[in-house]
Amino acid sequence: MNKAGERLYNGLIKENPTFVLTLGMCPTLAVTTSAMNGLGMGLTTAAVLACSNLIISLLRRVIPDRVRIPAFIVIIASFVTMMQLLLEAYIPSLNKALGVYIPLIVVNCIILGRAESYAYSNPPIPSLFDGLGMGLGFTFALTCIGAVRELLGTGAVFGTAILPDSFTPIGIFVLAPGAFFVLAALTAIQNAIKIRGRKKGKEYKKLQSGCSEDCMNCSDSGCSRRFYGTEAKDTGVEVTDLEKEG
Q1: Furthest-apart CA pair in the chain: how many Å?
Q2: What is the mean pLDDT of the chain?
């Protein structure tokens, strides 16, 4: 599998930010009262994630390591502001429905996590596709959760009636507890499929997330070792000296 395809597949399936890594739970649980809200939030986050990954990767040799987090936040905040202005201008209803959760994309752990673990240490094109993959995986998860909640809570999906008039909507699914129920059920279904696949002899190889260890199996600060190793390689300073400096 080529690098771009690997990053897309990784974000959609192997390391789906919602169902596998359980990241970004705040917008996942808060805005998925309908499929449209989930799709809108997911695509907005995907656009910010892809653009910020690309810019951070392009500037990775310019941004000092000591101020990388503030630099990441400034770059991400710039794209979030642009996306919010575009939504306010062209899709005001969606902008009103998502509300405060659009500005909160700035501190979304998925975006900061990909900037830190992948974009800051990889070339621009793979970083762009990594952002697209993670963003599309997030969009897929939010749309699925929103569709199930909307279907059970109102009998419709994307505003179109699906269930017959005789169906009695289950109101709890469009309330806060419904998000937990649906997320737990969808995650359990995914895990059941994986377990069944393993019993049939299928191996689910986890793709690397950009550091020296697999994020899902990392137990000894792989990311810290990667940054120390990168700085030591670039400056010629020994790793032990960097660790002593803190």
Answers
A1: 73
A2: 81
The answer to whether 39 and 117 have CB atoms below 8 angstroms apart is no
Task: Kindly state the helix (H) or strand (E) to which residue 161 belongs, with its residue range.
Answer: strand 160-161
Separation CA 128–CA 132 (nearest Å): 6
Whose structure tokens read 């699906």? 162
Could you tell me how many residues make up the chain? 246
The two three-digit tokens of residue 20, written as one number: 């596998």
Alpha helical stretches, state H, the chain: 3-9, 25-30, 35-58, 68-90, 92-98, 109-117, 124-154, 176-199, 222-235, 239-245
**Cα–Cα dist 16/175, whole Å:** 25
Taking alpha carbons only, the member of 227, 229, 228, 226 closest to residue 212 is 226
- The SS3 call for residue 160 is strand
Distance CA 131, CA 10 (A): 10
Residue with structure tokens 């940054």? 227
The alpha-helical segments, DSSP class H, found in 119-216 are 124-154, 176-199
Which SS3 state, helix, strand or coil, does residue 213 take?
coil
> Tens digits of per-residue pLDDT, 9-65?
888 888 888 888 888 898 898 899 999 999 999 999 999 999 999 999 999 999 998
**pLDDT score recorded for residue 202:** 59
Structure-derived torsion over alpha carbons of residues 75, 80, 82, 84, reported in degrees to the nearest 10: -170
Helix 109-117 to helix 68-90 angle (10° resolution) is 130
Spatial distance between the Cα atoms of 118 and 204, rounded to a whole number of angstroms: 21
pTM passes above 0.85: no
Cα dihedral across residues 152, 140, 25, 99: positive or negative: negative
